[in-house]
Design brief:
Helices cover 39% and strands 13% of the residues. It has helices spanning 4-17, 46-52, 79-85, 91-97, 109-118, 131-141, 145-148, 154-164, 169-193, 200-214, 274-293, 300-317, 325-331, 358-362, 400-408, 418-422, 454-461; strands at residues 22-26, 32-35, 38-39, 60-64, 69-73, 102-104, 123-124, 223-225, 245-250, 262-267, 389-392, 395-397, 429-431, 434-439, 442-445. The chain has a five-stranded mixed sheet. It binds glycine (GLY) and manganese (II) ion (MN).
């Protein structure tokens, strides 16, 4: 937890954004795994964590915009809790750590909210993403479950996005801690992939353990596979074979819930063959050109298309694409190879604030989301501001079903050498992802530099695990 002034200041800034009413921010409750008392690792709601900092399940925070007051609701622990979990601080002591003076038992929240409703004051809340939160909001607000999400406050969503997307120095330091953990995860993954014959699960499990040992849990389920043509491949059952590339897309959380999101792709066995090196270098060129273009004032969508252009140029050199690069990108021909966006914002959620609606976070009045295949998947399109933290994650994938589909539909015949593409159907995929801070003068790549040139990767892999 940061010191209490951080949370007080965040709530003060929110009070400047919202005219009237209250914000009701429910923390998460414990979620059961296979029977009630056997629970998953507790993960606090990121918005509750941002404004109140407390890591306790079953708490709620209220920010009263009319009366400039903040409240924490939570139940004090009883002797049973103490017996099983040790001595626990009182709710009032916990609230003090977040700079909140007004506290009450959670059992009192229903009456508190009912009184606000009776006064006809607006109750702002954010869109819930867990069943328990929907049920609780439904009961507190007198809405059906189905009515809860649509009733979320757009005024609060916009205000929270405005505050949270600009990261403070302390937040950036947290994200850098998470990237440094990812450094250990990824260099371990590389060294383990130097040994063919190993099952992917062994590597995925080992690097998940590194995250837990050095920080918190992984920031999303690890993507690790030599079938990297499947973009989010969570199956780790393949035996690693020389000739395949292994994608590892994995990040960690810190104790304060800040995340990293890094992808590296390496040749099983530790040496790139000629075909792998050629395609890898194109993705790396796109990654570095995109990073280098980052600066405030530029729309991220422009940088996305810049990266797509680098990919088309490279694939033309490899004989896989043809024609005019600009026309190919405008037509969307690159989407056969990179059917996703260049990146997204990051923070306490690895796709920062995605629960508030991707378009509310990555787009605005000046930047409307594309609707066509591929480009529509770009999560961040709007103008960059100093203090944004985002990912740059271009890729090239040879997805046999997509190749067949586009070819059968006669798509992009002027830009794609399909006969050549056929010979890559066994290739898999490559993605390279880094976490970047937008600075006044441009950008800063966050954390300890994780090897990504062909030479640096081969060097790491020359020391197998
Ligand atoms: N790293 C996974 C993703 O960004 O979707
Ligand atoms: Mn990502």
């Amino acid at each position: 937890m940061f010191n209490k002034e951080v949370y007080t200041k965040r709530r003060e800034l929110l009070k400047k954004e919202i005219k009237s009413g209250i914000a009701l921010i429910l923390g998460n409750v414990d979620a059961s795994f296979n029977y009630p008392a056997n629970v998953y690792h507790f993960r606090q709601d990121s918005h509750f964590s941002y404004f109140f900092g407390l890591e306790n399940p079953g708490f709620a925070g209220v920010i009263d915009f009319d009366n400039d007051k903040d409240y924490i609701f939570g139940n004090d622990f009883d002797i049973d809790d103490v017996i099983w979990m040790g001595v626990q601080p009182k709710v009032a002591d916990l609230a003090a750590k977040a700079g909140v003076k007004n506290t009450a038992q959670y059992t009192e929240i229903a009456d508190f909210i009912a009184a606000i409703k009776n006064e006809g004051r607006q109750i702002h809340f954010l869109p819930p993403y867990r069943g328990e939160t929907i049920i609780e909001l439904s009961s507190l607000l007198g809405l059906t479950n189905a009515e809860v999400k649509p009733a979320a406050s757009m005024e609060l969503i916009k205000a929270v996005v405005k505050l949270k997307e600009i990261k403070s120095d302390a937040e950036v330091a947290e994200i850098e801690k998470a990237v440094d953990i990812a450094y250990e995860m990824h260099t371990t993954s590389m060294r383990m992939a130097a040994t063919p014959g190993r099952v992917e699960q062994e590597i995925a499990g080992t690097i998940e353990g590194i995250s837990l040992a050095l920080g918190g849990p992984v920031s999303f389920p690890i993507i690790l596979s030599q079938d990297g043509q499947t973009l989010h491949n969570h199956h780790h059952d393949k035996v690693l074979e020389v000739g395949r590339m292994m994608v590892t897309d994995a990040g960690a959380e810190t104790h304060n819930n800040y995340t990293s999101d890094i992808t590296r792709t390496v040749p099983v066995g530790g040496k790139f063959n000629e075909r792998q090196a050629e395609i890898y270098q194109i993705v790396l060129d796109a990654n570095m050109a995109a990073i280098d273009a980052i600066k405030p004032g530029l729309k991220y969508r422009e940088i996305h298309f810049l990266a797509c252009g680098v990919i088309v140029d490279g694939l033309k050199k490899a004989g896989i694409m043809k024609g005019n690069t600009k026309a190919a990108v405008e037509a969307g021909a690159h989407t056969l190879f990179m059917p996703h966006g260049l990146g997204h914002q990051m923070g306490m959620d690895v796709h920062d604030m995605e629960g508030l609606g991707e378009n509310n976070v990555g787009y605005d009045e000046d930047t409307v989301r594309a609707t066509e295949f591929g480009n529509a998947y770009l999560r961040l399109g709007k103008e960059l501001k100093t203090g944004f933290v985002l990912t740059v994650e271009p890729g090239i994938y040879f997805i046999p079903d997509l190749i067949d589909k586009f070819r059968n539909e006669g798509k992009y015949m002027d830009f794609i050498n399909y006969d050549k593409v056929e010979t890559y159907k066994d290739f898999g995929g490559i993605r390279i992802e880094d976490d970047i801070l937008v600075t006044e003068g441009g950008y800063r790549v966050l954390g300890k530099a994780i090897p990504k040139t062909i030479k640096d990767i081969e060097d790491v892999m020359s020391n197998p695990l």
